[in-house]
């Protein structure tokens, strides 16, 4: 049992919002998937030691939730000196289907916050190369933070140096301080962007039509890789001052529309949830924790009918979200609940869930960007695949995680078994690639 220590930090506004949602609906856990594929076999003992070493560098990787009372205003984390339990499980998979099963079981699990660490790791032995799968409870970290933790695990496994930035990783979690606008003009610009985003999302979005789902709970996954040639050929600027991320959003909007058309379902406004990393540029990929605000990217039928109009509409919204402080304004709004008792927040979350679900987005896209540093396991070789996906929960139909690694774009489609079958998601992924080919 790890020694109890008194190092504590409050849940920041993102931690709290995610945890309230998890408490309200624990059967659809908000888990972050991060996964690497090794070229061969990995050593179990060496991996366990690497996980422990990585956690020693990142306080939030050793966090557990402090017992709370409904009258308290805020949840708290306690940072343990060591780990309360061994988070690593080992599975032998003789074929790809066994790998899919291990992945689904891991990511469909709600990782308890009562003991540290707030994540679980599954080492899956496979004849063609092992997998290191990580499920991070989203209340503890976002996708970029989970990538940072995985990078530390790999560096520790390889015996490589793992420098960390010269900042207090717990102090910078105070988003009210870190994201405070420098001027009144900056504050007003962020609020204008948020109000503009909400005005575009005034009507309920399209719902991805169910296909083949059942009574099963949990998540399934479908992975696709674009070749180095196809990845290099993506050119969003043919139509607008857009980015590759804008292109991925545009393809997802069109894929939702195409899917619904094939199922005879309506599709007016498509709303896509997009997390925005609010870390400073000098530590863009640093510090384990939640430093992202979710914004909605909306498109109309008219915009989706024209490639240039679609990419222009999306590029304008993503630029506003990133450059004008829209995401920061959203986080500031969440921070305004700091003095409300936990019991009241829980009751309001349960009470408001039916109305908020009406406006929940059609799908999610989260892009951790280009991972330039090779994920090397030292003498056991360099990872050949890197997979990431954000959580998804009803009524949203699908979540798409994107990561560029080794010159190739890795796309992970996550779906709920209750609404879609594996065969249906494979078809949806095909529609997505067709839309990507048409646009970029």
How is this structure best described in words?
The chain is of the alpha+beta class. It has two domains: about 10-160, Chloramphenicol acetyltransferase-like domain (Chloramphenicol Acetyltransferase, 2-Layer Sandwich), CATH 3.30.559.10; about 175-440, Nonribosomal peptide synthetase, condensation domain (Chloramphenicol Acetyltransferase), CATH 3.30.559.30. The chain is about 40% helix and about 20% strand. It is built from 13 helices and 14 strands. A six-stranded mixed β-sheet has the order 8-14-13-11-9-10, with helices on both faces. The protein is globular and about 55 Å long. The termini are far apart.
Terminal Cα span? 53 Å
The gyration radius over C-alpha positions equals 21 Å
> So how many helices?
13
Mean pLDDT: 91
Beta-strand portion reads 15-25%
- At the fourth CATH level, what is the homologous superfamily of the largest domain? Nonribosomal peptide synthetase, condensation domain
At CATH level 2, the architecture of the largest domain is 2-Layer Sandwich
- Strand arrangement, largest sheet? 8-14-13-11-9-10
Which regions are unreliable across 5 or more consecutive residues at pLDDT < 50?
A: 1-5
> What best-fitting shape do the alpha-carbon axes yield?
globular
Q: CATH class of the largest domain, please?
A: Alpha Beta
Number of domains: 2
CATH topology of the largest domain: Chloramphenicol Acetyltransferase
């Amino acid at each position: 049992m790890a020694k109890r220590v008194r190092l504590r930090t409050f849940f920041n506004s993102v931690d709290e919002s995610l945890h309230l949602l998890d408490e309200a609906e624990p059967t659809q856990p908000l888990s972050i998937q991060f996964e690497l594929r090794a070229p061969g076999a990995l050593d179990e003992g060496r991996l366990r030691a690497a996980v422990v070493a990585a956690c020693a560098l990142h306080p939030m990787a050793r966090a557990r939730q402090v017992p709370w009372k409904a009258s308290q205003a805020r949840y708290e984390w306690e940072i343990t000196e060591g780990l309360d339990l061994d988070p690593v499980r080992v599975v032998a998979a003789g074929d790809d289907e066994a790998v899919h099963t291990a992945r689904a079981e891991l990511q469909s699990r709600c990782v308890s916050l009562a003991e540290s660490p707030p994540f679980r790791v599954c080492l899956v032995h496979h004849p063609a190369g092992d997998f290191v799968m990580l499920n991070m409870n989203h209340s503890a970290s976002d996708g970029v933070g989970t990538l940072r933790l995985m990078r530390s695990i790999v560096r520790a496994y390889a015996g490589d140096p793992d420098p960390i930035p010269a900042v207090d990783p717990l102090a910078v979690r105070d988003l009210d301080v870190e994201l405070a606008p420098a001027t009144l003009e900056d504050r007003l610009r962020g609020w204008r962007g948020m109000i503009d985003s909400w005005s575009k999302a005034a009507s309920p979005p399209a719902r991805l039509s169910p296909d083949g789902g059942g009574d099963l709970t949990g998540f399934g996954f479908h992975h696709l890789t674009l070749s180095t040639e196809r990845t290099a050929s993506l050119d969003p600027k043919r139509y607008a001052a857009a980015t590759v991320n804008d292109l991925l959003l545009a393809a997802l909007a069109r894929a939702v529309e195409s899917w619904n058309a094939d199922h005879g379902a309506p599709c007016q406004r498509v709303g896509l949830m997009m997390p925005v990393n609010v870390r400073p540029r000098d530590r863009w990929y640093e510090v384990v924790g939640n430093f992202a605000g979710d914004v909605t990217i909306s498109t109309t039928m008219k915009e989706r009918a024209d490639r240039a109009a679609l990419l222009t509409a999306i590029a304008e919204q993503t630029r506003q979200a990133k450059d004008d402080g829209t995401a920061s304004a959203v986080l500031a709004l969440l921070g305004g609940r700091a003095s409300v008792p936990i019991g009241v927040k829980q009751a309001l979350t349960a009470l408001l869930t039916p109305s908020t679900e009406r406006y929940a987005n059609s799908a999610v896209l989260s892009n951790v960007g280009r991972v330039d540093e090779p994920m090397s396991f030292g003498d056991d070789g360099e990872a050949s695949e890197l997979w990431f996906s954000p959580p998804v929960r009803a009524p949203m139909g699908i979540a798409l995680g994107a990561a560029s690694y080794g010159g190739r774009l890795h796309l992970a489609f996550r779906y709920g078994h209750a609404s879609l079958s594996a065969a249906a998601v494979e078809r949806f992924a095909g529609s997505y690639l067709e839309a990507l080919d048409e646009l970029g």
